[in-house]
Design goal:
The chain is of the alpha+beta class and about 375 residues long. It has 2 domains: about 240 residues, Aspartate Aminotransferase, domain 2; about 120 residues, Aspartate Aminotransferase, domain 1 (Alpha-Beta Complex). Helix content is about 40%, strand content about 15%. Strands 1-9-8-5 form a 4-stranded mixed beta sheet, with helices on both faces. β6 and β7 form a beta hairpin. α1 packs across α8, α2 runs parallel beside α8 and α3 runs parallel beside α4. The mean pLDDT is about 95. Bound molecules: pyridoxal-5'-phosphate. The site of pyridoxal-5'-phosphate has 15 residues, from α3 and α4.
């Protein structure tokens, strides 16, 4: 085993690949003297909207703001309810709370890890003002099916982890009333800092979002309503423009890595996230259910210099921050069980096959040793 750490996600090789082009982009922006909401953001918004197959895109400072502003643009606020799942990153729920609304959870499906659409109808009340499905790890919620369940209730897709993933050939984020993406550095399309964006086909939503991200300004002297300061900056937009043309290729590499894990990891030790046949996942992270002692495997891999991660150790309905919602252990049993079993393995597009060999080899050797121990334990004792 090499003594170099194997990170779960390593951004350094990606920087090496893009370094010269990123430097050119930075050099292009710096002499302009225009660093906020100028030509690079406008161009990136156009390019990203086009990539998603949407008419409009509105860049923001991060995806958490983008989710909040999407809700505010719909008029969602205090007294309203927004349906999502407890198996997601905390910002999905932070955004709902920031809008003034109350999060209402439905459980996930045990196979896809996605919102269980069979449970949505029962969660809808007269106060439900939006539904926020999450395309977790790059798998895609069937938004057409969700639409059949929720009728006219607006859908905001949290596609923060799903850049380039598709459902029946169309891009995640483009199905709902609005779709939100994060450009946090480790995302499939990552900036060199924070960034987010909302895509939509609706010109009214787009116009409202443009004002909301800039204090509610109509022009420099007139404020139509109270907004916030949440803008994607020119440098990040210029860098994202360098990476966007390579996104599909990077996603393909992630799929190849996921296929190797699924084909080569010790059979029976893991259950993999089920990707429906009409979905092409972008495998933002590779999370599987592990059926052994997870903490022991994590510690063993750690001792070999192989980093893992747990997405997510605590479901959101059981976090201290959501205690006021009154949920109890057992309320969302599928999410709770997945939180106990989920394990994220090394995944980034530039992962070398030889390094992947080491990760798979280390896990398989460990599993083989565990099988040996358990078969020794089950030997009949001598009289
Ligand atoms: C599902 C999900 N939603 C929202 C966010 C928030 O993104 P950002 O960090 O850009 O605010 C993230 C990022 O981790 C995420 O994974």
């Amino acid at each position: 085993m090499s003594n170099k750490m194997i990170w779960r996600c390593d951004l350094e090789p990606q920087h090496r690949y893009f370094a010269a082009a990123v430097q050119d982009a930075i050099n292009r922006v710096l002499p302009t003297g225009r660093y906020i909401l100028a030509s690079e953001v406008a161009a990136f918004e156009k390019e990203f909207a086009g990539y998603c197959g949407c008419r409009f895109a509105v860049g923001t400072a991060n995806a958490t703001d983008a989710l909040t502003l999407s809700l505010v643009a719909l008029g969602v606020g205090a007294g309203d309810e927004v349906i999502s799942t407890p198996y997601t990153a905390i910002p999905t729920v932070s955004a709902i709370v920031d809008s003034g609304a109350t999060p209402v959870f439905v459980d996930i499906r045990p196979d896809t890890f996605l919102m269980d659409l069979d449970q949505v109808a029962a969660a809808i009340t007269p106060r439900t003002k939006a539904i926020m499905p999450v395309h977790i790890f790059g798998n895609v919620v069937d938004i057409d099916e969700l639409r059949r369940v929720c009728g006219e209730i607006p859908i905001i897709e949290d596609a923060s982890q799903a850049h380039g993933a598709t459902l029946r050939g169309s891009k995640a984020g483009a199905f709902g009333d609005m779709g939100v993406f994060s450009f946090y550095p480790t995302k499939n399309l990552g900036a060199y800092g924070d960034g987010g964006i909302v895509v939509t086909d609706n010109p009214v939503h787009a116009e409202r979002l443009r004002k909301l991200r800039m204090y509610g300004m109509v022009d420099k002297d007139h404020i139509e309503f109270h907004g916030v300061n949440s803008r994607l900056d020119e440098l990040q937009a210029a860098i994202l423009r360098v990476k966007l043309p390579v996104l599909d290729d990077m996603n393909r590499r992630r799929r190849d890595i996921a296929a190797r894990y699924e084909n080569e990891l010790h059979a029976g030790s893991f259950t993999f996230q089920a990707i429906p046949s009409e979905v092409v996942s972008n495998h933002h992270v590779f999370v599987a259910r592990y059926h052994g002692n997870r903490e022991a495997l994590i510690a063993h891999l750690d001792s070999l210099g192989i980093q893992t991660n747990i997405y997510y150790p605590v479901p959101l309905h059981l976090q201290e921050a959501t205690r006021n919602l009154g949920y109890q252990p057992g309320d969302y049993p599928v999410a709770e069980q997945l939180c106990e079993e989920a394990l994220a393995l090394t995944m980034y597009p530039e992962l070398e096959p030889s390094v992947l060999d080491m990760v798979v080899g280390a896990i398989n050797a460990y599993e083989a040793s565990m099988c040996q121990v358990s078969s020794n334990l089950s030997l009949p004792t001598s009289p």
